Amino acid sequence: MSSETQKILTTDGIPLEVSLKKAEKKNKIKAFLLVAPLLLFIIITYIFPIGEMFTRSIDDRMVTNMLPKTFKAMETWDGKELPSEEVFASFLSDFKALAEKKEHGKLGQRLNKEKNGFNTILKKLWRKMKKFEEGNVKEQIMAVHKRFRDVKYWQAIKRTAPPYTAGKYLKGMDMYFDEDGKVVQVEEDRRIHRILWLRTLEVAVVVTILCFLMGYPIAHLLATLPMKYSNLLMICVLLPFWTSLLVRTASWMILLQQQGIVNDFFVWIGLVGDDSRPEMMYNKTGTYIAMTQILLPFMVLPLYSVMKTISPSLMRAGKSLGGTPFVAFWKVYFPLTIPGIGAGCLLVFILAIGYYITPALVGGASGHISIVSSVAGYRGLPAGGAYCASKAALTNYAESLYFDLKRFDVRVSVVHPGFIKTPMTDQNDFPMPMIKSPEYAANQMFKGLTQSNAFEIHFPKQFTFIMKILQIMPNWLYLKLVKKGMKLVGR
Amino acid sequence: MSKNQEFVKFDKVDKSYDGKILVVKDLNLNIAEGEFITMLGPSGSGKTTCLMMLAGFETPTNGEIFLDQNPISNIPPHKRGIGMVFQNYALFPHMTVYENLAFPLKVRKIAKDEIDKKVDKVLSMVSLSGFEKRMPGQLSGGQQQRVAVARALVFDPQVVLMDEPLGALDKNLRESMQYEIKHIHESIGVTVVYVTHDQGEALTMSNRIAVFNDGKVQQLSSPDKLYEEPVNSFVAEFIGENNTFSGEVTDISENKCKVKLDSGVEIFSNPIRVKSKGERTIVSLRPERATIDPENKMDNKHKGKIEEVIYHGDHTRVRLDLLGNKDFILKVPNSSARMDIKLGNEINVGWNSQDARALDPK
User: Fold this and answer.
1) Prediction ipTM score
2) Out of A108, A354, A440, B65, which could bridge A436 as a Cys pair, Cβ 3.0 to 4.6 Å?
3) Which of A321, A334, A337 to mutate to test the interface with B (most CBs of B within 10 A)?
4) Which residue ranges make up each domain of chain B?
5) Chain B touched by A326 (CB under 8 Å)
């Protein structure tokens, strides 16, 4: 009661706080409206997608949604012995529902990641379950494959129950949950992610240090020089921003390559011999040089803005009080620039961490060149002079490239398709054995490019097998066989 | 204990920044030990340059500076042992008051307990005991100023330089700081070289004042002499208020001359910078030396018309049109007797020829 009476009122008798809020409301709305477009933009293009990505990265509801009844039945299962008849029955019912929707394959793939061998037994179950009789599901399922009698497989299903998982993050660190649910590392030769992390970190740290070492004196000079010189210097510092990434990177390539300008200069002044020109590109040196140049302004600008505010009389005071120039710098100037150092290093480091393009082009080439040749390139075929010759050339070219580009970590592959139904083969008037659809060809190529590391991608295998035998035949036999074959088809 | 009269000595010092213009021209200046000397002058007159040369942040283009008979041009600032108070205090913003004060002692590798003792002492001298842990940003302008003074004194320098240290303070604070600095100087007897463009500050604090203009010392003397007996028209105009008449010398004797003003009237004045008949001159007269209704013995008596009356509390400033000078200022002490000071009235004004100094015509 007393607090009510203590409230300050305006002359109109309205409580002061209410009146103040009313007066400020308009300003608040105005301020919000000014921010609103940006806020909306950020929410739509940034917060929402990133939130979505994060949810997906830990989302593991696939199995949960596929086997709803099973998980319900498993709630009472202790997870030590084989589950009860009820769990088996629910699992079968869930699986049948999936099979109707043709999604049982997905389940197999997903569970296979959890426990090897799941895919096979689920396929077998799918085949056998049509003959299942009513009742006693547990016995029947266990009869399908002995693995269904192994409690570990049922534990694996139960492990997928939580709707969220850290599995994908673990994979990024070359680790995974093993069958017992423990975090273990993958085999040594498959630990690629961590090496990438470390290499990225190393590059970022070194580039940040280089930028700091070079940027600090420049920023100091910028902050202390008279305006007319400092403006010119500032333009030079900002120069990397003026040129496009592509031009800039290309010029670094011209400068840094083994027969490039920098190497020529080193040879000319006698620093290195003509036959021992150092490699400055396609390795870490190139990465460091190019990235340091591009990121230097991000170090200089924050440092400059901080140094500009430091009064020159502070250094003078330090000296007049008896500090040597170094002491004055170290005890007075340097501590005051720490905010700038922090901002600059953070900026450069974050940018360097996420900087893939420059290293990809200058520092260490890697990639994949695939050349589409044909089985026609194996041997000279009748009525295919130009075609066979050019395809054979392509195949040989790919073989040469394979060796030349290997040291740059560029994979070279060659595609050898058999007969594919295309407008070109439509014009052929001879029989084309084992002709395949373009969709088939595309599928095979995609598989070969992404899922194997083979040099040759060839299909259909039955046909290419025959062609390969023809290829290794001695000439007299080959020529004789082809002649006979031609007679057979009436030519 | 005889004091060294040439403790700091500027000997024929020239300074140029660009090789074309001399900012300091042929400066010869002796500063005695324990003296409080002020370099006073308008901005760009070279006074701060002189201070910077003494501190070691600028080198003389020609000539030499001696400190206690030793040439110091080749000694870097940190070895000169000269304390300095900067215009904007230049306190280290990332250090506490204690650390600021301990800085000059630490770089001299003085023991910790000795440092504590000295810091305590100097803080109590500027009456800031108990502020050791504050950061400079948490202090008021006056307190920062005191810390800056304390820091310049804490390592017992031979000379303390102060570069317009009170420029950023408000008027009341500035005045009280003036006395404080003066008292500190008197109590520890350190030599102080003080730079300011504020003549009031210079007159209050200094033993001697060097008036700078155009790179040269125009006059070097004690405050009273500077005010009462300016040696040229620049000093007369720069220091205090001044009424001027320009004219030509028509008659001259030992300590009296007759000057015919441009309006045709002749006045008697004191020949300081004129030697012979026919010379042009500017006659300078302090406002408080002219009186209304002069006594008979005054040799200059003239009539003037009141153009403006400004009330100043303890006195009234009266602007007269007198002998062709429309800006003749009179200071009249306020008393009920003077009721005739009204706009448009004509009054009699007189002064002694001794107080009207005939100086150079500029």
Assistant:
1) 0.79
2) A440
3) A321
4) 8-233, 241-359
5) no
